[in-house]
Each structure stands twice: as C-alpha cells, then as structure tokens.
From TrEMBL:
Gene Ontology MF annotations: protein phosphatase regulator activity
Pfam families: B56
Family affiliation: Belongs to the phosphatase 2A regulatory subunit B56 family.
Family annotation (InterPro entries): ARM-like, ARM-type_fold, PP2A_B56
GO annotation (BP), single: signal transduction
Organism: Blomia tropicalis (Mite)
GO cellular-component term (any): protein phosphatase type 2A complex
Protein name (Swiss-Prot/TrEMBL): Uncharacterized protein
C-alpha cells in the first residue's frame, strides 16, 4: 500500500510519513455498518502495513526506528481509541437472566473493522519495543495511555473486550513499569462494581481474569496489597449476578489461596456461611458447593506436596472445616434439586477426599444415616442405595443382608 502511495514510510526526520499518518488518523463513524468506503479500506490496508513494519522475523531480524516513528505509531493507536465509552453497566430491569444475557452484552461494533488492526498494531509495537530497548517502552506506555486502553474494556463488543484484556496482559508481562498502574486500575474498577451492586458490570469477568493472571504470575511475597485482594475476592461473592462470572472468580480464589494457605480456613468458613441453610436457592448452592470442592482439591494438592510436619498442620485445618462441609453436603441431599443431590453424592464418593471424610466417622454416622432413613427426604431409592454404597466403601456401615 505504501508503494501505491509512492511515498516512503519514514520522513527525513525519522518520523512517519505525514501522508500515511493522516490516513491512519482518520476516524470514521460507520453509520452504515454494511458500507465500506474506499477511504475506510485504504486506512484498513495501511494499518495492516504498519503492523508489518514492526514484525520480528523468524531469524530475529528487526527494523529499528527513531523514537519519533514510535511516537507517531502510538499517536495513531491513541487517536483510534479516543472515543468515550459509557459506563459498563446495565440497569437491573434490562438484564435477561437466562441464555439471552450474552447477547445483551455482546453488540457487534462495526468500528472493529479498524479497531482490530489497531489492536494488532499495538500488540506488535509492544513486542517490538522489548526487542529494541526498554527506554522507548517506558516513555510511550505512560499512565494516560494505559488508562485509555483499560477503559476500552467497557466496550459492549465482546471481541474487543477480550482483545484489550490480552493486550493488557501482554503489556503487564513485558513492561514492569506498567504493572503498578494496571493493577491499580483493575482494583479500582472492581471496587466500583462492588459498590454499585444494584447494577450489572458486564465486563467484570475480564477484570477478574486480569486479576487472576496477576496472581498466577507472582509469588506471594511479590503480590502487592494481598489483604485488599482477599477482601475484594470475598466481596465479589456477594454480587447478585455472581452466576455470570463464578467460574473465573473461583479459579482466581483458589490461585490466591494456594499462594496464601493461611487464608484457606477463614475463606472456607465465609463460603459455608454464605451458603446458609437449605432455603438458599439451588443455583447458589450448586455454585458454592463447586467452590468448596475446588478448595478440597487445593487442600489435597497442598497435602500431597507438604512435608510431614506441614501435613499435620493441614490436617488440623481439614478437621476444623470438615464438620461444616459435611453438614453442607447433608443439606444438599435434602433439597429438591436432583442435579445438586447427584453432584453431592459424586463428591462423597471421591477417592481423593475419603481420607478427609473418614476422620469424621462419628459425625458422618450421625448426619447421613438420619437422612437416609427419613422417608420424607427427597432421595430416590436408587440414590439411597448409592448413599449406602458410599458409606460402605468408606467402611462406616454395612448394608443389611
């Protein structure tokens, strides 16, 4: 494309040729999403050409430019991301609490025709600057730019939100000077969502995913404000739309607890208290039961990796938690939800957890045998037989002949 314009990519001062730059700085409104004009297509092609100028070849060859050129590239990116986006939230009455929810928060933005190559250009620039030297990168990726990029997480286009999330991860990985700013923005936005729980922040899964990424890639002593992270993870369990992001939240929590095993007991009791009695909705009980199983898996992992002395300390934690966990299982078995009952039965027969369960033999007899023998409880004959098989397997009772 640059050859067609019959101009050099770089001007005499080392910056980008002004003709090319002006084309890429144009912002189109896309009033008719089905109409792509010649000017739009020209910009699209030039943006892709600029990406190629920053590509690192397989043999390591790289074109190094003057700081002015990189600043021009960043100006193009910055201008194309300058649109103000509305708050990333929905009023409660607009939420479809069902399969159609994702459609509400995934509008196809026709501007992605240009934004996608802009994000590709930013990704190439990030990698390119690492190769040519950190001096440029530190100057270009200042707080204002990071904040502008971060705010694009508020887009209603799911593809754009995912691209921005991956770019922030890439910048966080490759540029240490940006890490504090990215972490600060994530925490601030999540705190805002928690404070306005009557609204749904549809990008909260991306925010949690970014936090999860940071936790996963740092040792415990490297994580700043770990107490604040813990409080945020706890508070995120209280939002009324937990159903839409519980999977990434639970993964994030387990990753955090693995770094800070001293928090496992307090956190688990919080979850068990949140579940409450059997009046809690079946959906919430299923979600929180899944999280408890994640925690049991973590305890098993920590136990297997520990020295004998640490094993004894972990078993003390298990012994404190297990009575409350078993009571939660007992309540699950008394609900009218077949999915919850079957999932609970499956976990009771999980061989990995049997050593934990059998430390509570007396309690299991007291709790579970009463449930199995009470005909008023909604446990089908087949499930009752299965329960007895589980207890027999655990060497707690014998099935009568």
């Amino acid at each position: 494309m640059t050859e067609n314009l019959e101009v050099d990519l770089v001007d005499e001062n080392g910056g980008m040729n002004q003709i090319i730059k002006d084309v890429c700085l144009q912002v189109f409104d896309f009033k008719n999403p089905n109409e792509i004009t010649i000017e739009m297509e020209k910009k699209y092609e030039l943006l892709n050409d600029l990406c190629l100028t920053l590509v690192i070849e397989d043999n390591g060859t790289i074109n190094k430019y003057c700081p002015a050129y990189y600043c021009d590239v960043l100006e193009i990116i910055d201008t194309n991301l300058s649109e103000d986006l509305p708050p990333p939230k929905l009023e409660p009455e607009l939420i479809n609490f069902g399969p159609g929810f994702n459609k509400i928060v995934d509008d196809v933005d026709p501007r992605m025709y240009h934004l996608k190559p802009v994000y590709d250009l930013l990704s190439q620039l990030t990698r390119h600057l690492i190769e040519v030297g950190q001096d440029y990168s530190d100057v270009i990726f200042d707080f204002c730019f990071i904040e502008k990029l971060f705010n694009r997480l508020r887009s209603r286009d799911e593809e754009e939100r995912n691209m921005v999330r991956l770019l922030l991860m890439e910048i966080y990985t490759n540029n240490k000077t940006c890490r504090s700013n990215i972490f600060k923005l994530i925490m601030q936005e999540i705190i805002t969502a928690i404070g306005q729980k009557s609204n749904v922040f549809f990008h909260i899964d991306n925010l949690i995913d970014l936090l999860y990424f940071i936790i996963e890639n740092h040792e415990a002593n490297e994580l700043e404000n770990s107490d604040s992270i813990y409080r945020i993870l706890v508070s995120l369990h209280r939002l009324p739309y937990l159903y839409y992001y519980y999977e990434v939240l639970f993964s994030c929590c387990v990753s955090f607890l693995e770094k800070f095993p001293n928090k496992v007991q307090t956190f688990t009791f919080f979850i068990l208290h949140t579940i409450g009695d059997k009046t809690e909705s079946p959906t919430n009980r299923i979600m929180f039961t899944i999280e408890i199983i994640h925690i049991l898996n973590l305890l098993k992992k920590l136990y297997d990796q520990s020295s004998n002395e640490d094993k004894n300390e972990l078993l003390k934690i298990v012994d404190k938690l297990m009575p409350a966990i078993l009571k939660m299982f007992a309540i699950n078995l008394q609900t009218l939800n077949t999915i919850l009952i079957n999932y609970t039965l499956k976990q009771l027969s999980n061989e990995d957890f049997v050593p934990f369960y059998t430390r509570q033999n007396k309690l299991i007899r007291e709790i579970f045998l009463l449930i199995f023998e009470d005909e008023s409880n909604f446990i089908q004959w087949e499930s009752t037989t299965f329960c007895r098989q589980i207890l027999t397997y655990m060497h707690l009772i014998q099935i009568p002949k």
